[in-house]
Design goal:
Number of strands: 2
Largest sheet: 2 strands, antiparallel
Shape: globular
Strand content: under 5%
Radius of gyration: 16 Å
CATH topology: Four Helix Bundle (Hemerythrin (Met), subunit A)
Number of domains: 1
Protein name: Putative damage-inducible protein DinB
Number of helices: 5
InterPro entries: DinB, DinB/YfiT-like
Strand order of the largest sheet: 1-2
Organism: Flavobacterium endophyticum
Structural class: mainly alpha
GO molecular function: metal ion binding
Keywords: Metal-binding
């Protein structure tokens, strides 16, 4: 069953953005917790490095919000020019956060129930696409937590999502 903006409202548009950005703030702290070398090289069981997972998140959030707002279906492109250091990734993360805020403010609550073909692959109501962005980030951040624990690094507490 798809969520839509047609039923009773249980969360405001502003609170949903705050929720998402809280997750983004926590993911940023996970990125910060990684030693530089391990951010780019450490993995377990053939999974992608946290830098690669972060690249995926950067290829989804802001580009997808731009596509949704402009109703412009573009293919998914994970190969972004992010840079070669953890600081480069953090800078891109911050830029993407601001882009998400900008495009979010261009959405109307009525848009949430409109269908959008995300990256030409997934046609769902916009609200479901947004839930996908959040869920995907939580999933990959969980992988980062496993990596940090394997490196004997205490990850940030998952409930501390303040901006």
């Amino acid at each position: 069953m798809n969520a839509t903006a047609l039923g009773p409202q249980v969360i405001t548009k502003e609170n949903l953005l705050k929720h998402w950005q809280g997750h983004r703030a926590l993911t940023r702290r996970v990125i910060e917790a990684f030693p530089e070398k391990d951010f780019f090289e450490f993995s377990i069981g053939g999974m992608r490095t946290f830098a690669q997972l972060t690249s995926e998140l950067l290829a989804i959030g802001a580009p997808a919000m731009k596509g949704i707002v402009n109703r412009d279906v573009k293919p998914y492109a994970e190969k972004l020019d992010i840079g070669t250091t953890k600081a480069d990734y953090l800078s891109k993360w911050d830029e993407a956060t601001e882009e998400i805020n900008t495009y979010w403010n261009m959405l109307d609550v009525a848009d949430f129930s409109q269908r959008f073909n995300l990256f030409g692959q997934y046609e769902f109501p916009i609200i479901d696409n947004i839930f996908y962005f959040i869920d995907n980030e939580i999933h990959h951040r969980g992988q980062g937590y496993v990596y940090l624990r394997a490196l004997n690094i205490q990850p940030p507490f998952f409930w501390e999502r303040e901006l």
